[in-house]
Amino acid sequence: MTTRLKGAVIGCGFFAQNHLHGWAEFDDVEIVAVCDLDDAKAKAAAEIFGIARVYTSAQALFETEVLDFVDIPTTMEMHEPLAGLAFAHGVPVILQKPFAPDLDACKRIVAAAEAANVTLMIHEDFRFQNLFRKVRDIVDSGELGRLTFGRLSWRTGINVYANQPYLVHVKRFIIMDVGVHLLDLARFLFGEANSVFCRTQQIKTGIAGEDAAIVLLGHDNGATSILDFSYATKRDPDPFPQTLGEIEGTDGTLIIGAGGTLTLHANGATRTIAVPHDCRGWTSEPWTQIQDSVVHTQRHFIDSLRRGIEPATSGRDSLATYALLEAAYLSAASGALIHPDRFPREPA
Question: Are 42 and 36 in contact, with CB atoms under 8 Å apart?
């Protein structure tokens, strides 16, 4: 019989509810405690998910509990101190994206994890969506030939500020919030990138940061990808939270359409592939594909811990994604093409 790993969740806000639902599915995991500065939020989560203990102090949590891991779905400003507490107690961490406010902070967190010899994974869930696992399978099959071009598009008019009002005040907004998903997805599908050009827009009035952006990536394999994303798009029906797009290769094209539908043109024929959801009892549209991917991401983390291997989106691997993010902001500010090798991946 597999030993159950004991974990805790720090942060019981809006998106953390999906994390808590996900952990509740695992027979080999037990969430023994939750922690939030807001006692009411922590108690509500504990009651809903049958969790034994509640804390408002992360320090008290680590001093009291014997944990096999901790999940930290908090705002990024709290990631470095909270992860540091976990590392000091030898506890592996799965850390919600965005990783940290800037690349230097990401590097410090990675360095601290490695100094403590503790596993660190970033909860980067787009690559764990059923749709994009299937897309990656098609790319790996070779049916498209050598990849030449890709486009990933995430555009919506959803009122993101209703559930996360703090976003109004965030100066680094949509690239950090959504763009980082697409940057990781571009690396997952097309490989590493060596050049970045970016243009941002602030369309909604009264917000501090950019709410639309386009990023052009040049990849090591010669492919070019375009990432476009917006919180200011008026469409009916609104495609939220779907990522649409296309991938071209020397032998074919793959269209990533709405509703989890892929259209593959290759070898002189066209076929349509429907990628279904997992049909969980707690998921609901339009969030289903994201909620499914939360569970897949968590499963990967637990399997990595059990096998003693580095997760696919480890802290160290994620430095490459956040170097692209920094390059995108620098490009938008300067109007220049940026080569992300200016941002070394080794921790400072």
Answer: yes
Which residues face 147 on adjacent strands? 249
Mean pLDDT calculated for residue range 75-100: 97
5-124 maps to which CATH number? 3.40.50.720
Query: Rounded to whole angstroms, what are the CA distances from 120 to 77, 123, 152, 304, 327?
Result: 17, 10, 27, 10, 23
Q: How far apart are CA 76 and CA 104, in angstroms?
A: 13
Pairing of strands 147-155, 244-249: antiparallel
3-class secondary-structure state, position 212: strand
CATH class of 127-296+321-341: alpha beta
Give one word for 319, left, alpha or beta, with left for phi > 0 and alpha for psi -120 to 50.
alpha
Rounded percentage of the chain residues whose pLDDT exceeds 70: 98
DSSP structure string for 54-109: EES-HHHHHHH---SEEEE-S-GGGHHHHHHHHHHTT--EEEESS--SSHHHHHHH
What is the arithmetic mean of pLDDT over 265-290?
A: 96
Alpha-carbon distance 193 to 189, whole Å?
A: 11
Q: Where are the domains of the chain?
A: 5-124, 127-296+321-341
Tokens encoding 6: 């004991």
Domains 5-124 and 127-296+321-341 share a fold: no
What is the Cα–Cα distance from 327 to 340, expressed in whole angstroms? Answer: 6
Q: Which tens digit of pLDDT belongs to each residue from 163-195?
A: 889 899 999 999 999 999 999 999 999 999 999
Average pLDDT over residues 46-75: 98
Cα distance between residue 255 and residue 293, in whole Å: 21
The DSSP result for 9-30, as a single string, is EE--STTHHHHHHHHHT-TTEE
Query: pTM of the prediction?
Result: 0.94
